[in-house]
Design goal:
- The complex is a heterodimer.
- Chain A is built from 8 helices and 8 strands; from the N terminus they run αβαβαβααβββαβαβα.
- Chain A is of the alpha/beta class.
- Chain A starts with 14 loop residues before the first helix and ends in a 7-residue tail after the last helix.
- In chain B, strand 1, helix 2 and strand 2 form a beta-alpha-beta unit.
- The mean pLDDT of chain B is about 95.
- By secondary structure, chain B is an alpha/beta fold.
- Chain B contains 7 helices and 6 strands; from the N terminus they run αβαβαβαβαβαβα.
- The chains are: A alpha/beta, B alpha/beta.
């Protein structure tokens, strides 16, 4: 975590630029996105068979990533979610930290708002530090990210997969056009499994 | 009727789950599951994932299935209420989900606080679209777990087996207490 430079004070990262950067040259990365803006953000970066964007299950994104990471220890798993979604399932930080999957990264795009419901404030705008909570829970690597340079460093850590990682990225509370992924849950599940496990997935 | 301590169902169910390919065992403990949990913890082919609340297990096991692994959620009926919104994930995406739910607020309950959730467990699950099976005799537990697992994994849906309190025996709080100091 580096200090803010004077240039960046009052200027926040743009969520879609951050996500596009994290997912560029993604290789065989497995991606789970929390409902709402993070799901639109990963789809904006390019719909992909190895994306599992959520349309509901608020509070569950990081834990879906946990089950996936445990099942696929040789693959890197990235969960991208929002501050409101993470706040709804804070117990996940403890549950994940105890399991210590080396291949799991949880990234929270923190606009300090419930963006989909009218930009109401969340706790993170009032001092609640999610990265600090993850650290206290026992995550190996935790980051508070505010600059492009920090995003670049974070990306290297995510793809190196050398320990359970949590990052809270402060982003601008901008209103953006929705970029919708497919919304049929069975389709999202089955295309993900086919891409990951091959045609035999349909016969498990 | 045999009580849990004299019954072999935890050993049989552990062997059955192993044989069915269950790898992730998500738990919020219950006394009724304690022997089965110990067996899973000793089994190197299984990963026990301790949860802070039962809904976490619904999400973890959805992730497991995405990654090609089967799992089981061990919990007590009090936790069904905690799972309600997360179960929409299993229903909407047709994730297989095997829930083994030991009942509280059921046969011979002592604790009034257990009754509202225990008495509505089946209705709540069914209202959400979760298929519910029930067993009240120890000699039938293994077969019912087997049938429930097959329903969940072969037909891609959440299925809960309610294991009646009659099998575990209701906890007798009076045996554990001392009188309130005056």
């Amino acid at each position: 975590m580096s200090k803010q430079t004077s240039k960046q004070i009052g200027k926040r990262l743009h969520r879609r630029e951050v996500v596009t950067e994290l997912l560029s040259e993604r290789g065989n990365l497995l991606v789970v996105a929390g409902l709402g803006a993070p799901a639109w953000d990963i789809t904006h970066a390019g719909d992909h068979d190895l994306n599992f964007p959520l349309w509901g299950a608020m509070g569950g994104a990081a834990l879906i990533g946990l089950g996936l990471a445990l099942a696929q220890p040789k693959r890197k798993v990235l969960v991208i979610t929002g501050d409101g979604e993470m706040l709804m399932g804070l117990g996940a930080l403890a549950t994940i930290a105890v399991q210590k999957p080396r291949n799991l990264s949880v990234v929270v795009l923190d606009n300090e708002r419930y963006g989909e419901t009218g930009m109401q404030e969340t706790h993170t705008g009032h001092g609640v530090n999610l990265a600090g909570m993850a650290k206290a829970a026992g995550f190996a690597h935790t980051f508070m990210v505010r600059t492009e340079a920090e995003v670049t460093r974070l990306k290297k850590r995510i793809y190196s997969g050398d320990g359970t990682l949590f990052a809270q990225i402060k982003v601008d509370a901008e209103r953006l056009p929705l970029v919708l992924p497919p919304r049929e849950g069975s389709l999202l599940k089955n295309r993900f499994r086919a891409a990951l496990l091959g045609p035999d997935a349909a016969h498990q | 009727m045999k009580k849990i301590a004299e019954s072999d169902w935890p050993e049989e169910v552990h062997a059955l789950l192993k044989d069915a390919g269950v790898r992730q065992v998500a738990i919020v403990p219950d006394a009724g599951h304690s022997r089965l949990i110990k067996l899973c913890e000793k089994d190197k082919s299984m990963r026990v994932v301790r949860l802070t609340t039962e809904e976490e297990g619904v999400a973890v096991l959805a992730g497991a299935w995405l990654g090609g692994e089967k799992g089981v959620l061990l919990m007590q009926s009090s936790g069904v209420g905690n799972c309600i919104n997360m179960l929409t994930l299993s229903v909407a995406c047709q994730f297989p989900l095997l829930m083994l739910v030991t009942m509280r607020g059921d046969h011979g309950e002592f604790n009034p606080a257990q009754i509202p959730m225990g008495n509505s467990t089946q209705a709540v699950l069914e209202a959400l679209g979760v298929m519910v099976k029930r067993v009240d005799t120890p000699e039938d537990v293994t077969e019912m777990v087997s049938a429930t697992a097959r329903l969940a994994f072969n037909t891609y849906r959440p299925v809960a087996l309610l294991i009646g309190q009659r099998i575990q025996g209701a906890k007798d709080f009076r045996k554990l207490t001392q009188s309130v100091p005056k």
